[in-house]
């Protein structure tokens, strides 16, 4: 072994114990041969989580749409409410990732929590829901960046009328630049994430300061406290304000609903049992604080809400920034400030999507699994899986050119699919009273755990239905919410694939389950976790 490489090859346990691969080979906690280098540190994995779950930038991309669900007070309080539930979900995922540090994330968690009888089916659906969610999420981030760039152009070209093909060309460039970064810069991804973390923290501070100071110095003044905190404005067409509040939580869920992103890098991080829960906590805490302060700042900077809602830009936040700074140049500057961290977010989504697809393929759960599940010997990453994710996003971009409603249906199902994948791991964990999981360093007391697991599961079951309701009334073919159609279609396709594949030798992450069962009966698991 080369000097300095010990941390890269530290085994979770050896093959002689797990009985999975050749004797003497390093086997990780997923029951597979360790193929990826452990490039990430605690700081860089926290940076990946904060970048991928870049809450304030994601909110900036959808905040104008969110205003219809109650105005600024609705956006703020809906965000705080949904953040509470996602903190509970994050605690559930952190507990499982501490016990089962696998790049498969909820795919592997579900195979354990559901037990030997239902584990294969639960993990199958959890994995496919999760990877589809991340691919759709990647496409949505590419589109947000494309809209930001075209809006920057439109700020200084008054005659410019954005056309769909303009956004599409930009979308393709953004998609493949981010994919290329993941494909060819594997060793620099931790450094890129650290740079992204700087942009996120510096960007939100700059934006808050500009929005707080410039309206006063330019004489335009700030919005009233009532506008920001009290003036509820229901512009959805629904008569029930309570339902509007619940439906509006979707916008916040899009921003904070990625607590599993760092789990998919567990096999590239030393001591993942300890570090993954820390990274999840850092991601959720940073996202909550920065997004909350960011929302308050930009809402106080709005002088004319109607102009924001009627803005010609594909990224309406450009008008908010123009009002805050009173100049187009100032708006451009703030758009650049939000563009930099958003690019890092997009890179993070392609990292996660590629890793997730690869973990499915190495268990023979995908078509052409030998190709998709191959680790590149040159680039030391799941090269083929990431390329496949980029190609799927390209196809979605082509759909956008032909029918933006169809494209929006795919990306809009991100929250529903991701939360369903969490449910597939969390609910069985509660129903089996955590019987099948060997505790890791982060393990909630029973009195706390069952409340957290129960509330998290109930939230997902209820809000998956609410988030499929139409966004506004009256409903038309264009304004309809097609998340239920996409989610149902994906589930039916995955179910048919499961029926075919389950009868042809698919066993899922069997080695992982057998190892967990062995450790739970011998008492080795807790000792190993404490050492890690």
From TrEMBL:
It comes from Mytilinidion resinicola. GO terms for biological process: amino acid transport. The keyword Zinc does not apply. This is Amino acid transporter. Keywords: Membrane, Transmembrane, Transmembrane helix, Transport. The chain crosses the membrane at residues 40-67, 79-101, 121-145, 165-185, 191-214, 280-302, 332-353, 383-403, 409-427, 448-473, 479-500. One of its GO terms (molecular function) is transmembrane transporter activity. One of its GO terms (cellular component) is membrane.
């Amino acid at each position: 072994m080369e000097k300095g490489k010990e941390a890269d090859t530290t085994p979770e346990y050896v093959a002689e114990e797990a009985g999975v691969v050749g004797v003497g080979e390093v086997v990780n906690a997923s029951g597979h041969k360790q193929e990826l280098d452990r490039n990430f540190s605690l700081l860089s994995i926290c940076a990946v989580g904060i970048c991928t779950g870049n809450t304030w930038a994601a909110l900036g991309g959808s905040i104008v749409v969110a205003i219809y669900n109650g105005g600024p007070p609705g956006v703020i309080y809906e965000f705080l409410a949904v953040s509470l539930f996602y903190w509970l979900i994050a605690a559930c995922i952190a507990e499982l990732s501490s016990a089962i540090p696998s790049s498969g994330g909820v795919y592997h968690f579900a195979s354990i929590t559901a037990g030997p009888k239902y584990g294969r089916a639960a993990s199958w659906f959890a994995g496919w829901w999760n990877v589809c969610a991340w691919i759709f999420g990647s496409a949505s981030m590419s589109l947000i960046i494309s809209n930001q760039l075209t809006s920057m152009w439109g700020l200084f070209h008054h005659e410019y009328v954005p056309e769909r093909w303009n956004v599409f060309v930009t979308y393709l460039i953004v998609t493949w630049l981010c994919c290329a970064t993941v494909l060819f810069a594997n060793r620099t991804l931790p450094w890129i994430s650290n740079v992204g973390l700087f942009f996120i923290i510096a960007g939100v501070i700059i934006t808050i300061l500009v929005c707080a100071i410039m309206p006063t110095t330019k004489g335009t003044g700030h919005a009233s406290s009532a506008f920001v905190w009290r003036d509820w404005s229901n512009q959805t067409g629904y008569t029930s304000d309570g339902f509007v509040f619940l439906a509006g939580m979707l916008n916040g869920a899009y921003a904070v609903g990625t607590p599993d992103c760092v789990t998919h890098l567990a096999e590239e991080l030393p001591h993942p049992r300890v570090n993954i829960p820390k990274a999840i906590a850092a991601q959720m805490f940073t996202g909550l604080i920065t997004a909350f302060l960011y929302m308050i700042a930009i809402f106080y900077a709005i002088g004319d809400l109607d102009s924001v809602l009627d803005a010609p830009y594909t990224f309406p936040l450009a008008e908010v920034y123009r009002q805050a700074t009173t100049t187009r140049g100032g708006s451009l500057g703030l758009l650049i400030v939000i563009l930099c961290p958003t690019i890092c977010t997009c890179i993070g989504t392609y990292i996660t999507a590629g890793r997730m697809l690869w973990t499915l393929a190495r268990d023979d759960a995908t078509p052409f699994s030998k190709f998709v599940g191959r680790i590149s010997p040159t680039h030391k990453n799941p090269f083929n899986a990431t390329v496949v994710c980029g190609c799927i996003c390209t196809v979605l971009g082509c759909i956008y050119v032909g029918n933006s409603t169809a494209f929006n249906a795919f990306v809009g199902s991100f929250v529903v699919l991701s939360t369903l994948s969490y449910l597939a791991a969390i609910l069985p964990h509660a129903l089996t009273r955590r019987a099948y999981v060997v505790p890791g360093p982060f393990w909630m007391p029973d009195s706390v755990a069952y409340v957290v697991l129960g509330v998290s599961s109930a939230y997902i079951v209820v809000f998956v239905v609410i988030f499929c309701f139409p966004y506004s009334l009256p409903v038309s073919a264009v304004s309809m919410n097609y998340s239920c159609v996409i989610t149902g279609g994906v589930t039916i396709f995955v179910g048919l694939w499961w029926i075919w594949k389950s009868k042809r030798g698919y066993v899922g992450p069997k080695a992982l389950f057998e190892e967990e069962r062995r450790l739970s009966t011998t008492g080795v698991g807790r000792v190993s976790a404490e050492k890690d």
